[in-house]
Amino acid sequence: MKNYKPKKRLNASEYIKGILSGDRVILSRAITVIESNLENDKILSKKIIQEILPKSGNSIRIGITGVPGVGKSTFIEVFGKYLIEQGHKVAVLSIDPSSQRSKGSILGDKTRMEELANLENAYIRPSASGDTLGGVANKTGETMLLCEAAGYDVILIETVGVGQSETAVHGMTDFFLLLMLSGAGDELQGIKRGIMEMADLIVINKADGDNVKKTELSKREFENALHLFPGLPNGWTPKVLTASALYSKGLIDIWTTIEEFITLTKGNGFFKKHRNEQSLGILKEGIEQGLTSGFFRSKAIKPLIEQYEQQILNAEINPYEAAQLLLSEYFEELKKRK
Ligand SMILES: Nc1nc2c(ncn2[C@@H]2O[C@H](COP(=O)(O)OP(=O)(O)OP(=O)(O)O)[C@@H](O)[C@H]2O)c(=O)[nH]1
Ligand SMILES: [Mg+2]
Prior knowledge:
Helix content: 55-70%
Largest sheet: 7 strands, parallel
Bound molecules: guanosine-5'-triphosphate, magnesium ion
Radius of gyration: 23 Å
Oligomer: single chain
Order of helices and strands: HHHEHEHHEHEHEHEHEHHHH
Number of strands: 7
């Protein structure tokens, strides 16, 4: 916390008014409050979110992922511009749990998304930093609510990599788009099967120049691969499309597909059902995270954990019982604190 000088804060109603009127400067400052770990900011951030919550939710939330170099930034730049031409307001957020990496991609994206960033109806916010993926994801989720309240009706959430961050993005979006490259072969470019299964749409990027033929071939391979997956309860059949982000090709088909998905799932109730499930999931996760971190941070419990660990290793107590005893101790400790 050295060298950290908090900027002067506004009061909650000033943030709220600014956000609701679509003021991008105030929106950015409010997001900074959301991302802050200072106690006063946490209180302020709760107030802001509480007030804007009824005005949030009115957007299409799209998760975008793919291996480094697949063209996510290039794609988001041209797709965002296309959507704005169609009259939408587009916010671009990201979840990037590794701070080392986010530095690189923020720098890169500043130049790559320059044109999009300069448009009045675009808002780009580089990822929050944080120690845990859960923490970073929560902040992105709350940032999304603020953007919706500010009138952004398409939210693009990018994630870098091929790991757990996809699950986090999937947990807060309506539609999941996976960018791929042609010539994947069987190894599927290090994309895990679980991530393929999450995709509502696979877009094979870089379908340009010498690559066009290979892309068509890959398209069929991916379609075959998707057919092996069980059908989705929402009635949607995941699609495969090709695109060239570099030459802005394939964007219309991608948006049409997303609109078809939204029409279908809003019609059969799965859109709302999915969001409700996500909200309850966030509640559960929040409780789990809170309990776990409270437990492990407890000074009274720490020595007990070590003691029980030793006893388990000495076969003096069984680990199931030890867990129960530790929890009981923890709840007793909480009562004493009151
Ligand atoms: N030929 C061709 N090149 C592309 C296309 N899209 C992106 N590229 C190039 O591929 C490289 C990587 O693109 P990025 O948009 O930075 O990829 P990214 O997925 O954001 O990469 P990370 O941020 O590192 O994860 C750049 O040199 C782009 O110019 C495309 O459609 N066709
Ligand atoms: Mg990028």
